[in-house]
Write a structure and sequence with these properties.
By secondary structure, the chain is of the alpha/beta class. 48% of the residues lie in helices and 11% in strands. It is built from 28 helices and 18 strands.
Amino acid sequence: MDVLAGLDPEQREVALAVRGPVCVLAGAGTGKTRAITHRIAYAVQSGAADQQSVLAVTFTNRAAGELKQRLRRLGAPGVQARTFHAAALRQLTYFWPRVIGGDPPQVVESKLPLLVEAARQLRRSPERAELRDVAGEIEWAKVTQIGPEDYPAAAVKARRTPPVPAEEVARLYLAYEDLRRRRHLVDFETILELTAAVMTEHREVAAQIRAQYRYFVVDEYQDVNPLQKLLLDTWLGGRDDVCVVGDPNQTIYSFTGATPHYLTNFAVEHPGAKVVRLVRDYRSTPEVVSLANRVMARSVHRLDLVAQRPSGPQPVFTEYDDEPAEALGVALTVKKLMADGVPTREIAVLFRINAQSEAYEQAFAESGVPYLVRGAERFFERPEVRKAVVMLRAALRSANEAGPLAPAVHDILSGVGLTHEPPSGVTERARWESLRALADLAEDLAATGADLSAFVAELERRAAEQHAPALEGVTLASLHAAKGLEWDAVFLVGVHDGMLPIVYAESPEQVEEERRLLYVGVTRAREHLHLSWALARTPAARRARRPSRFLDGLSSAAAPAPRTTAPAPAVRRPLAAPVQCRVCGRTLAVAAEQKLGRCAGCPALFDEALLESLKAWRAATAKESKVPTYVIFTDVTLQAIAERVPASEAALLSIAGIGRVKLERYGQAVLELCRRVTREDV
């Protein structure tokens, strides 16, 4: 196999640079994964490296899985491709009994349970949402090697905005660490820290690991944090056979401790390093690439991309009167793209914060557009998928297992809800789509001659690598969650000052990171790109917003669409009286905040048991009524109920989103759930 065949000149240059320090600056869509996998394969094929001595490190299980797949196809199946944490945990677990003694510590998947206990010990009662943010602060501190006692000063210096006073974060951090150590537990940051420490303190361990791994490749190097850099340096042990790949213009995780400094200063750290720039963009049309280049025109580390695809439509810029009009306008444009033949799985709506998702979920549901919320629930954790996998495993163990793969899988999945025609309800349709995706995957594998055993093994591999099969539906995702993905059509919504850049981006560095976030969004689009903003939150609000400052001088170059106001819904609701936050008193303009009765950033108190009971009741009621769950109550309305625990019809009616009709239909059932949970608490 000629592993150099089909590479462009710059990719070939990367592949041929098999030894010594190498830095690949790879713009969006330029084929960086292709370049580094072919480099590894060529190094193995040419004898420059033994595949058992190669360690390719990346940041997600899915990315590691993709590297493994490509390397297998290129004849290098023995190469280890892992995340930083997986590689470190494997080494730590192996050497722990020998150098420490006893069983290795257990891994903490979430910091939240220990933080809840730590808060109780300190006689504090912060909200669970606040504790999740505290967990984020602890993670930032640990990856930047900041201890509890130094956190308050470091937080001020770094302009952090902790959810509780910095001194309280420090106390929770200290109590959390104490509990973790006493319980013989490790979190993801401690795994990296301990692995580096064991290698530093035990020379024989370092010698064995360095004898095993002599050839390193690090993907997404712009996202490396100080702790990961410490571990990488410890693995290298002064050697320089390392290739790093990244794009400083896609640094969007600095709030977690990531820094592009290691990438941009690689040639300074490694004098004589070979630096290769990948700029040929194979993903997007010239029109999209041109806009991406203009977004980053002022970047110190700009990489001017050169489009390789044929010309396509110009990006469209649309201004709406308010957010509901924007959501409806996007839904109508999506329907037009669908009518023109663009598959729903090749369309995405990207926003700055997850709270923006609700308006698009509602607009798409009302418009009959199927959608998926990325990050809400992993595919292989969905109840219908888990049940289907259990049944497939059971069929594999059965002595009666026989017949072609595709029909066998169809028969098995029919037992959990797969029908020939999709159901009409939104919720049931989503479940059906999950099962349909499994059936389609079985048909694809059947074409290669695979049997049921191979299919189950493929599902297990995909579950481990978080590699979900393709699903039908428009993707709704945050810009952060969209990194590394691409679609034929992308809608960037809410592109106004205060949202992009976000209102709390104050320093020049923070504002520039917001610009990079827009760049990431633009470069997700292959062909169709729409950018939009609304002048006001609600139809009744003053139209005081302005388009994002990042669009200054750009929209006119891209033939902006005329200012568009989406058609109003057929039924107009009367304007409600102003709703004020019950915590701080501010007038609420966002629908979701009005339903909750508080600002999104104000403290929330809600009974989790009640919320789960309400969700279970809603699911059963929706199934019985054969309607989507949101028709009963939205998630925000259920959370508002769980926060207020209404004891009367009047209290229930005071919650925004609950009118007389819903009160008559569901009021007694909801109040009984509230009374039941209240009695149990007593």
